[in-house]
Amino acid sequence: MIAIELKGRKALVTGGDSGLGAATVKSLAQAGADVAISYRHTSDAADQVAALARSFGVQAYTFRLDNISATSEVDAMFQRVDQQMGGLDILVNNAGTDGARALCADSDIAAWRQVVEVDLFGAYYCARAAVQRMTKQGRGVVINTSSVHEFIPWAGYSAYTSAKAGLSMFSKTLAQEVASAGIRVIAIAPGAIKTPINANVWQDPKGLADLDDKIPMGRVGEPDEIGHTIAFLCSDLASYITGITVPVDGGMLLYPDFRQGG
């Protein structure tokens, strides 16, 4: 039996206190990695996720990061990670936001900019800091959480789709830059997943039915399905994978409306 093995690896998951981030922390810990969890404002949820991680026999730490789009805060967090963990093998850029829905002509410029600064600039700041450290040790993995909306337009969310499309090309370019240093960079594109951020949709029978109709597999995904995929991509089982976006979407990108032909 081939198992995902991350024992001895040290991972940082931004936004690791809930949703896909919490599921990722759990999966990495189950595979044996020590984990650092960044969170905003309050540590209660992060402490619970850390406690779950420790139940798998690994070390877990929490770090407050209120503004991922502020380079000073990102740099300070990485310095604390250095002090507490003594190195970094895995970065999962999970923190993000989709922002409030607004058509482009009606959108608020500051709000639009904030989504891009969190989803794209924040991932860049963290990846930059991580790669500086990984290059010195000659290995590492960076996972950038994108979305199926790097491929699929989403009316009213142009900042989010633009940021995710940019994150995809950033991931490819960074992968090209650091491959010779033994660092792999991969984007992961979740589809519709049952997380608190979209609970108003999947907890509503009509909303859930509409979602299911958009997914060839006929169901919304579970957070653990994203976490398990990330753990695999971080492991040596995926040692020849870099510079791509991996969709985990139940087939949403297959355009299910065309199942019966064009």
Description:
- With 262 residues, this protein is α/β, with parallel strands linked by helices.
- It has eight helices and seven strands.
- It has helices at residues 19-30, 44-54, 71-85, 109-137, 158-178, 199-202, 205-213, 223-234, and strands spanning 10-13, 34-39, 60-64, 90-93, 140-145, 183-190, 245-248.
- It has a seven-stranded parallel β-sheet with strand order 3-2-1-4-5-6-7, sandwiched between helices.
Strands across the major sheet, in which order? Answer: 3-2-1-4-5-6-7
Low-confidence runs of at least 5 consecutive residues: none
Percentage of residues assigned to helices: 40-55%
Measured by DSSP, the beta-strand proportion falls in 5-15%
- SSE order, as H and E? EHEHEHEHEHEHHHE
- Overall pLDDT confidence: 95
**Count of alpha and pi helical runs:** 8
Computed over alpha carbons, the radius of gyration is 18 Å
The CA-CA distance between the termini, in Å, is 43 Å
**Helix/strand class:** alpha/beta
User: How many beta-strand segments?
Assistant: 7
Give keywords.
262 residues, alpha/beta, seven-stranded parallel sheet, 14% strand, globular
